[in-house]
Amino acid sequence: MIRYTIKLSAAEVAELQTIIKKGSHSAHSFRVAHILLSCDKGEFSDNKGITNESICKVLKIGARTIDRVKKRFVEEGFEEVLERRPSGRLYQKKVDGDLEAKIVALCCSEPPAGFSKWSLRMLSNKVVELQYVDYISHVSVSNVLKKTNLSLGK
Q: I want to staple 81 with a disulfide (CB 3.0 to 4.6 A). Which of 35, 36, 73, 109 is the partner?
């Protein structure tokens, strides 16, 4: 396994100490700042003899987390390691404008016999029954109605 050595500059140490001591930062940035300061072997470091095991115990994190932070710092740089990576997953929208219009039209129509108004689950079941989509959850129907400022309670 590759051992990554962290050597921070004076400016980087100062910025990490600022993150730890003041300001509102994400838990991720806070944890990364602690890891980098603890692992620092540069000339501006206060603690050159701290091991990964002791960092794990103090910060209550796993050894792999420390290794990942070190690797990301060495390969991608200081600014990148402080920010979370955006998710690479692409989400395909199930509800487009055409389906929204059909759901709104269905919502404004008469409810089934025996019911005074539509429920979200009845709407989602009816949309599937009419074969507009293969499957849609009642939450997605709720989001469509919320987006168009419609309410089933009226």
A: 73
